[in-house]
Amino acid sequence: MSAGVRRTFASLSVPNYRRYFGGQVVSITGNWMQTVAEMWLVVQLTGSGVSVGFTAALQFLPILLFGAWGGLLADRMSKRRLLMITQSLMAIPALALWGLTVSGSVEVWMVYGLVLARGAVNALDNPARQSFAIEMVGPDRVVNAIALNSVIIHTARILGPAAAGAVIALLGVGPCFLINALSFGAMLAALRAMDPAELRTPKVAERASGQLRSALRYVAGTPSLRIPLAMMALVGTLSFNFQVLLPLLASFTWHGTASLYTALAVAMGIGSVTGALAAGAHGRVGPRLLVGSAAAFGVAELLVAAAPTVPLQLIALIPLGAVSVTFAAGINSAIQLAVEPDMRGRVMALYSVVFLGSTPIGAPLVGWIAEVAGPRAGLLLGAAAALAAAAGARVAFARAAAPMTAPARPRCESSSRRRTARPRPRLGTRP
């Protein structure tokens, strides 16, 4: 096995992470099946782009409102134990949607309510999952582990929509919700099988007032955290809205069916897996990677927006998937490597807030733009946001590094130079 391949899959040599990896593959595949089924069900019930965007917003609204408290909870208790609770609870909305759909009594407000309930549990689950990777593999492998987590997510983005498309075509949307409910069993089994003694569990944070404010002050005073989080806030709000735009591209732009939506999602998933595998070979991340991947994200989204045919759009979605996951994994890794262990849950909760919690703001906006001006306009907005993030971050990183690389000169530098300069030689003598 080559050294590059070993670096790409290094975290799988850790037994706890290997169990986690397997459980996540099954669970997140089921989650993507549910996401595809929810969005297609809303399209069928309403025919509205705004409704699709509103559904995505409800899924992540609790993270925006309560995600920081989820991070505080993750710092105050065992993340493994918290994940076992949240993974169990997330099966309940899926079972309810299955029952309502197969009985023929589902209405759009019911979908909204159950999506919101799932999002509420996710507000507690996501910060714990984001900050759990480094406890399984340690700081030396955390960049690799985060990249492999992206492989899981985006492999599921291929398998989930493909399976959902087949199930919807043969049996309808209802069975997708049942399959997702059952898939949480794999994650629970993986968590239960872990060896707690092998986890690098930090000291549990003591209860005290002002812990969220202290985390905000800590981030604000740390450029290596502040700049990546600001980048993700902009890109997460306006660029990462593919679960809104892809079904609208399939339905509004190309007048296709769920099969075309599935094809678009799978094409992007293929690129995402490729990008995640490439990111897994990196041992470190830095400003150049973050700025470059944001710029590439913007350019790739422009290409998808400009694609004149379905085949060309499918091809363009592959590099877009690759650079989007490179950007997201890079931001995640940079933050986890820069943060203090006892702050990790709260800071990763802020990452979840700006990445996922920004969806309630961006998704309805992008859905409205897609309905009024077409899905391509939503893609153009996302491209502009990613390019702006790259340009702003380049300036911000340069300013943050300036004191370290070129210390400011003293105000009286010119006078000090005159005092310390060598005396001029007298006329007619050699210096």
Q: Over the alpha carbons, how many angstroms does the gyration radius reach?
A: 24 Å
The CATH class, by name, is Mainly Alpha
Number of strand segments:
0
Q: What is the total number of structural domains?
A: 1
**How would a textbook summarize the main sheet?**
none
Strand content: under 5%
The helix/strand series, from N terminus to C terminus, equals HHHHHHHHHHHHHHHHHH
CATH topology tier name: Growth Hormone, Chain: A
CA-based shape:
globular
CATH architectural group: Up-down Bundle
Q: Note the total helix count.
A: 18
Helix content, binned percent: over 70%
User: What is the average per-residue confidence, as pLDDT, rounded to a whole number?
Assistant: 83
Low-confidence stretches: 403-431
Oligomer: single chain
The secondary-structure class comes to: mainly alpha
**What would you give as the CATH superfamily?**
MFS general substrate transporter like domains
Distance between the termini: 66 Å
Structure description:
The structure is a single chain. With 431 residues, the chain is an all-alpha fold. The protein has a single domain, classed as Up-down Bundle (Growth Hormone, Chain: A). Helix 2 runs antiparallel to helix 8. The longest helix is centred in the first third of the chain and has 32 residues. It starts with a helix and ends in an 11-residue tail after the last helix. The C terminus is likely disordered.
Fold blueprint:
Layout: H1 3-8, H2 15-46, H3 49-76, H4 79-89, H5 91-102, H6 108-137, H7 142-171, H8 174-193, H9 211-220, H10 223-238, H11 242-253, H12 258-280, H13 287-306, H14 310-338, H15 344-355, H16 359-373, H17 375-405, H18 413-420
